[in-house]
Amino acid sequence: MAVRTWMSCLVFLAACGADVPVGPDQTVLIDALTDVGSSDTTNDASLDVHDVPVDLCAAVTCDDGNACTADSCAGGLCQHAALVGPCSDLNPCTSGDVCQADICLPGAVTICTDGIACTADSCNPKSGCVFTPDASQCDDAKPCTQDSCTATGCTHGKSPSGCDDGDLCTADTCKSALCVHTPSTAACNDNNACTDDLCEGTCKHVNNQAKCTDANTCTTTDFCAAGVCVGGAPLICNDGKPCTADSCVPATGCAHAAIVDVCGNGKCGCGETVAVCPADCK
User: Fold this and answer.
1) DSSP code at position 262
2) Which pLDDT band holds residue 24 (cuts at 50, 70, 90)?
3) Buried-exposed string 106-116: b where 16+ CB fall within 10 A, e elsewhere
4) I need a surface site. Which of 72, 116, 118, 149 has the fewest CB within 10 A?
5) pTM of the predicted model, to two decimals?
């Protein structure tokens, strides 16, 4: 019993004692005493001692998010050693950034140029170089050209719209690099032959009495009345032939269908002969 009691006290003291770092790996060895053997109370019970390593940095995160420090852990404590050398300040508008006193200092300002004179060159700290086309840099002061800024520089294409005077009643054209504005009613055309189209700042449509066509070939001398084309006298389709039925089709005009009499009516009529109808044609 004396031995077991002494060992129990030893275990108690070991469990309550301070951890002592051992070796460069910064682990602690805990002496665990285990009673191995039978349950009798004799003094010959054997004791085993096992050293159990514990890593104090296993659950520690030391990353400080600073690219200019080397982060590490020792004995459960974080260490951040300053670095010297290139880094990135995450700004695409600088280059050659370097670490100084734990801080990433920006380097030289990025020069953005695309070599095209009509673009505004700038740098966006989030996206980098930006080249914005500016057509105003391409103005050649000629009203008959369309000035624009492209990937190859300024272009000056032909553009009659450059002569637009904003007047509905003129036809705007460009001749010999000069704008010409000719009076015109084209913008007011309502495609109605029975109205006169006028352009006097705004469009006007005045009814007339002009000759017209009502799209019916079976009428003649059509005329305009109240802005509408009215059919005149009917078309005469008589061809003077007794054996044709004369008629008029509005879409195509006069038609002349052959007439054939009925054999046996006692009359040798149209289309009948002795050979065809001997009863009527004797």
Assistant:
1) P
2) very low
3) ebeeeebeeeb
4) 72
5) 0.37
